[in-house]
Amino acid sequence: MKIMKRIYVILAILTAACGAQRAAAAGLKIVTTTSDLAAIAKAVAGNKAEVHSICTGKEDPHMLQAKPSVILQARDADLWIRIGLELEIGWEPPILDGSRNNRIRPGAPGHMDASESVLVLDVPQGPITRDMGDVHPSGNPHYWLDPLNGRRIAGAIAERLAQLRPADADAFRVNATAFRKALDERMFGAELVKAVGGEALWAKAADGSLVALLEEPDNKGKAGGWVASMAPLRGQKIVAYHRSWVYFAQRFGLEIAAELEPKPGVPPTAAHLAAVAESSKAAGVKIVLQESFYSPKAANQLAGKIGAKVVVVANSVGGQPEATDYLALMDLIVGRVSEAR
Ligand SMILES: [Zn+2]
């Protein structure tokens, strides 16, 4: 009898241990539409979630397809995070429908639209016609290339995870704070963040008074990071392939003089390229910028004509081997653009 009791106790302990292990392994399952959202979600969720991205960062996110493997991934997701602003309009509905997972349907707590937490540019004024090309009616969806938006997305993900798993709310908020601190130091340099504070610096960046702040005697020479690397390019005009660099350009004071696409989503034509060559030469354009999933032919042709450099760089995490996470992606872009001037 004593032996039996002991066996029961041992069995009970073993069962409890297995149960605990299973609970740890069965953390939250997050599926994101893009790799940038996945990178930020990983930073915020830490070891409390498994994160999968549908885009790898090497494809054009407008053109993805709802593959069966992706639908399977969505089936047991606890949280779905999308870019929104109709970036995924061609492929998100079939995935969500096919998944039959009510927890991640629009409106459910497990469905998060990251665009609700960011600053949106290019919101069209007036009616939109087919004639205008692939225009997004609620604004430009390529917002992740403004680090301020990356910072805001991290905060929003932490709050959504806290809502889904209140027991881990503190951990998510601590992780988001660490992500923001690391991002602030990469953006402004550690010395300036220490002197002024990350929150205050971003407020100045957002209202357009950062340049003036950096000129104040107390702050002069203190800026480091992306701000210092990009400062010599302020006011430069560039040509981009697609309207996907507007947020990056706006944050660092670059001006997009023209795009190689005659209309969003429409490949370059000879007539359009000739017009761009003329106007961008007159504007003194020295950089033609594009992501790697477009053909570089038009960019090379234009650059040859006007004496500019072509920068082909990933605009999403995973688009190039160096772009291992969100901060590394921004490091890569800032490095490539600033060395091309
Ligand atoms: Zn686009």
Give an account of the 3D structure.
Strands 2-1-3-4 form a 4-stranded parallel β-sheet, covered by helices on one side. A 4-stranded parallel β-sheet has the order 6-5-7-8. α2 crosses α5, α2 crosses α6 and α3 packs across α4. The protein contains 14 helices and 8 strands. About 5% of the residues have low confidence. The protein has 341 residues and is α/β, with parallel strands linked by helices. The chain has 2 domains: 141 residues, Nitrogenase molybdenum iron protein domain (Rossmann fold, 3-Layer(aba) Sandwich), CATH 3.40.50.1980; 108 residues, Nitrogenase molybdenum iron protein domain (Rossmann fold). Bound molecules: zinc ion. The site of zinc ion (ZN) has 6 residues, from loops.
What is the topology?
Blueprint: H1 2-25, E1 28-32, H2 35-45, E2 49-53, H3 68-75, E3 79-82, H4 92-99, E4 111-113, H5 147-164, H6 169-188, H7 190-196, H8 198-207, H9 210-215, H10 225-230, E5 237-240, H11 246-251, E6 255-259, H12 270-283, E7 287-290, H13 297-306, E8 309-312, H14 326-339
Helix pairs in contact: 2-5, 2-6, 3-4, 5-6, 6-7, 7-8, 12-13
The protein binds zinc ion.
Zinc ion binds next to loops.
